[in-house]
Each structure stands twice: as structure tokens, then as C-alpha cells.
Amino acid sequence: MRSPRDVTQFRHYDAHLFRHLDKLHLTRQEVNRLFRRNLGRDAAEANMLALQASPWLDALERMILGSP
């Protein structure tokens, strides 16, 4: 059995990005479906990882509806 790879040795490793990846709970499709239903558009690409880190869809929807 192989031992798990050390992701820090990956040539494209970025600590900031991998911290976000560890926190992902939602898929891009779930986030965009919620944005389209409430705002009629997809989520901004620059915000996608942060949005996917929301713990559940209800929390993300409350955040969307509560924003100006």
C-alpha cells in the first residue's frame, strides 16, 4: 500500500489555494444554480472557492439574499 502523497511537493502547490480546497463543501454547480435562481446569473469566478466553502446551501442563500 502506498503512503499518501505530500501535496506540498506538487509543483503547482499554493498554500492559500489548498487551504480553500480543504474547506470546500459545495460544488460549483450547486453554487451557480443558487445564484441563477436568486440573481439570474452565475457566481463571479473570482469568488467561487470562497462560496463553495459555505457549510451548506441554506447558509449561502441567506448570505446572497442579505447582500445589497
What characteristic shape results from the CA principal axes? elongated
Please report the total strand number as a whole number: 0
Count of separate DSSP helical elements: 4
- Helical residues, percent: 40-55%
- Strand percentage lies at under 5%
> H/E element string?
HHHH
Sheet with most strands: none
Low-confidence stretches: none
Structural class: mainly alpha
- Could you tell me the mean pLDDT? 90
> Alpha-carbon distance between the termini?
52 Å
- Give Rg in angstroms: 15 Å
What can you see in these coordinates?
It is a single chain. By secondary structure, the protein is mainly alpha-helical. It has helices spanning 15-22, 28-39, 48-52, 57-66. Helix 2 (28-39) packs parallel to helix 4 (57-66). The mean pLDDT is 90.
List keywords for this structure.
68 residues; 4 helices; mainly alpha
Short summary of the structure?
The chain has helices spanning 15-22, 28-39, 48-52, 57-66. It has 68 residues and is mostly helical.
How is this fold's topology laid out?
Layout: H1 15-22, H2 28-39, H3 48-52, H4 57-66
Helix pairs in contact: 2-4
